[in-house]
Write the structure tokens for this entry.
Amino acid sequence: MIGGRRPLPGRKIADRRVRVARPHAPYFRYTGPGQLVAKKAASRPLTPTGRLVAKAKAVLIGRPLMSEEEIGERLPKKKALAIFSSDAISSSAYATEEILRILIVAGVSALALSVEVALAIAVLLAVVSFSYRQVCRAYPSGGGAYVVARENLAPVFGLIAAAALLIDYVMTVAVSTASAIQQIQSVVPEAFNYRIEIAFVSIALITIGNLRGLRESGNIFAVPTYLFVGLALLIVGTGIVRIIQGTAVPLPPQPQALVPGGEALTVFLLLRAFAGGSVALTGVEAIANGVPAFKPPESKNAANTMTAMAVLLGVLFVGITIVARAYQIVPSVDGSGGPTVIALVAGAAFGLGTPLFVAFQAATALILFLAANTSFNAFPRLAAILAVDGYMPRQFSFRGDRLAYSWGIVLLAGIAFALLYLFDGDTHALIPLYSVGVFVTFTLSQAGMVRHWFRVRESGWRWRSAVNGLGGVMTLVVLVVVASVKFADGAWLVVVLIPIQVGMFLFIYRQYAATARQLAIRPDLVVPLPHREERVVIPIQTLNRAVVQAINVGRSISDDVRAVFISDDPEEAEELRRRWEQQVPGVPLVIVESPYRALAGPFLAYLEVLDRAWPPDKEAPITFVVLPEYVARNWWERILYNQAVRRLRSVLLGRPHTVVVNVPYRREEPEVFEQALAADPTDQA
Amino acid sequence: MIGGRRPLPGRKIADRRVRVARPHAPYFRYTGPGQLVAKKAASRPLTPTGRLVAKAKAVLIGRPLMSEEEIGERLPKKKALAIFSSDAISSSAYATEEILRILIVAGVSALALSVEVALAIAVLLAVVSFSYRQVCRAYPSGGGAYVVARENLAPVFGLIAAAALLIDYVMTVAVSTASAIQQIQSVVPEAFNYRIEIAFVSIALITIGNLRGLRESGNIFAVPTYLFVGLALLIVGTGIVRIIQGTAVPLPPQPQALVPGGEALTVFLLLRAFAGGSVALTGVEAIANGVPAFKPPESKNAANTMTAMAVLLGVLFVGITIVARAYQIVPSVDGSGGPTVIALVAGAAFGLGTPLFVAFQAATALILFLAANTSFNAFPRLAAILAVDGYMPRQFSFRGDRLAYSWGIVLLAGIAFALLYLFDGDTHALIPLYSVGVFVTFTLSQAGMVRHWFRVRESGWRWRSAVNGLGGVMTLVVLVVVASVKFADGAWLVVVLIPIQVGMFLFIYRQYAATARQLAIRPDLVVPLPHREERVVIPIQTLNRAVVQAINVGRSISDDVRAVFISDDPEEAEELRRRWEQQVPGVPLVIVESPYRALAGPFLAYLEVLDRAWPPDKEAPITFVVLPEYVARNWWERILYNQAVRRLRSVLLGRPHTVVVNVPYRREEPEVFEQALAADPTDQA
């Protein structure tokens, strides 16, 4: 609010503005001189079609939310655990299987080592989640690895982290959806044949859900997450009791089981199994990125949720692996449509086909779909942060009606579905692309935190930086292991993609920065506003109401108005001139014969001639080209009208000192100031 | 040229216009007051990119032609025969096969009747071509069945004929291309596997050829047509000599030959054979449609060319059928990739694999590609006539650089290739869609001619109308036969499509007519041009050169200029206001806080408020909304810029009394009148 705004020196404009700014309109609250706050009605669509679209949108994605309502969207811990942890916890549905798939090539006996591998990964999980607790505390504003790396290391590391995170989010959607469908197919084998269709429908539903906004997410998603956790704990518990009782005996291999190989059990194989199983850690960072979505005190709530999540994930992952080893479960052949390892584990505990088994598989599929949903929260947020910082196109920072970043949501859904389609919905084929990005993020984030503690040196900074340092070194080692042992399986793609993405970020940044620099004006300069001369040129094709309206607009701009008729038919041109001179005597008509039948070329050339005829000592005037443009009411009118106008506009937009004026015309409603001309209905000019 | 144009009463405008219209510019010849004729330079592109595109276009489709050069494009008879007859004559490459395919279901002995069926079709050909000679004479301006039926029967019959013709042209391209590829595959069987790729390349080449224009067509295409006719006559001659000598003995069936069936030889079967073979008549109407392309005397030359074509076609078709019968040739199984009947006939005459055989197959493939080319002449011409008459979107009457109707050419190529793709390049599957349209055209055209003779009653009108009447009745009978016996094979599609197309024509006509009627102004009215009040509103997002330029343009339009800043961040808004009041003191800034973050809605609402504040006794002013628009230099700049502008423009275009002004800005070249503001490069506003 500006208190001492000096009154503009007795200008007509100023008077008018003041008079205009105070109407008791339903649209605005008046909060100061030249300062309005839009009410809800101001965002209401003005046309019948617009209102219809808005109504359909309201049904599909809910009523619009105001910015101030955002605080009401904050999540209590239990809901936040459901939303932000579904990604991490759901990894337990496929991480064990990834370990077994590698070990089986060294024979059934090698499967015994799966628990040791899982325990190693659980140790890594403990270190990483402990490191991330500190991120939650140090960065209550969220932003995760991108912000941490950018602020503590260098902008380019922030961008690397951002690129890795974006890839990670896309992969979360693809892998979780694929795995969810494999869980369904473990119960209903026919689903295998419809996996792409199911993937499409599920991603579409998640997309619509997210365009509706955050709050619904919490409500819809809490139940299945806790159902999965509960049932999975029951399976692990049952299994361990049976192991202690000695009743957990190896099952006979199922029909689609992989044939055990005869390779030697090398360290390299163990490393590969570790790299495969480390997919269990994906999604751990989600809570640190989403701190501002927690209820206050945000940092503390987020850190505690992080610990709860890590404990749950560790117990489930190791427990499932122990049970799988006890029953000597062997994964199915890839692409055979056979059951998943976790389904076999559940079958061993509950009995295949029992209601509990079916319920668990349903809960597993649901939590995996919810894991995909985690990315639908995170991806658009990160894209919007990048867009605000100038690293992504600006439209990613536009907000849709429901405080959701619609552009990011739709882009994420599109890429993820494309990946599922290309990899034919195969979880196992997608996973090598998954882990690399995750560990890049982890490493950069921990490295950034070490620098952070060294800079702030608050109490306990030494042990805090040691924790993050340990986490950073461990995740770096894992990153190198994962990238090298899975390089040929697809990890190379991520290694290539990250620099490409960073290049794109920098390219976009430089574009916007260069434009802003070129367009900048010195902040101390009082802008001179000379009144330039202007002329109006109106290309016409006939004489009708639309043309008369264009002339009217042209005369409002300048006294120097002329119409130009480009024709390849001299007789038609003569006929038009005759009519023109009788009906529009005040406006000169120039006829340009165009034997080459081109329209744009001769018109541009005519403008050139006008400019050259201007006295060289005088500054050339602004040329206003007035183009009548039909207001198309539907798609076929867009085909039937405005083709010539579109061609002209696109060539004129590049011309210096030239301004294009679009005067709309429609069929039914003659402009008020046109009614005097209202057509004689028998005349078809 | 207007001689006694009264001088405009001493207005500034008029002086300026006269001064401006006489510059010794390189672009125009000055032919009268306010009358210019564009020279070639006027159509020259003005930007470097434009020049590059034009150069590429010149290489690909040749230099631009002037309208006056069109007469030089007229065709002598021999070239015209090659261009307009390739469609009809090339039918002999597949018509015999269509007869044999039907008869074979009644066993090998039934093949003997093929010659009788062919002769019946030849009689029909004689009548139809004789009827069409009269069309050439009566309608020297061309236009064929559409014009004849429209003028003599009723507009709707003209549209039915036009719909049938358009379908016919598309089918010609599809069938001829498919058959051409089958001819190639008769020599090189591997080509069968690449038939879709070959189809794509050939249609693309023909499309480019036609975008180059008509003259080249004649030069490129005359040689293969005459080569085909010469070699085919040689085959027929050789065959008939051998039949007379008694050395033409039945060949053993080739490996992919159809297994003869055991059905009875019914009249229905004979009718089906006749319907199949009647595809030989397709393309006969092409000459009548193309009369204006002939050298003068157009009608006589066209009529004589018509007769020459009919004789050649008749001789080849019947001759090939006779030779095929003598050698007892059996068609290949559909989709087996086996040789065509005409290839087997040529093999029997020249010996399979001999140089003459290969040359003939090459010539056959070439003439079939040229047949496709016939449609590339006819389809865009007819579409342009329909567009000028208001039955098709106007852009079909735009002309490209080479006097060719680019839109029609590209549309035809697209649909024809789509058909080939959908029918998997199978000639035989496409043919049932082909003949129905042709006979609809024939019937309507002959019926129209009967009415024509009754109206004009010039010498010989009785026998002339009798000839056309006979033709009309015969083609109507054939139409009914073809449509019914081939209905289930695909003819139903055409029966459905024709009314749909006619409906579309009428719909488009009514749209344009209604618009013209609504926009018409009484021809006796001298248009009043009141000088309306105007106001300028400029939505802004920051303060930079682009905004200053927009303000400059706005002040050229009106003194009432205000900027509107829509923001969801009050602090940012205050900051901008501070800067604005210091740097642009003459222009009021209105800040609209938009808690819903929408842009378009609050802006429209603000305009509404402005309108309501206007005194109700005064006419509301025109609102000029000035939008700075970035001139994108490539595709990625189109993604990075102008998103918000596009959204605003599309909502504003529907608002009454509102005019959108697009002020272009670019990065590198500050507008001359902006240089005073040139940015301090260290300032990144």
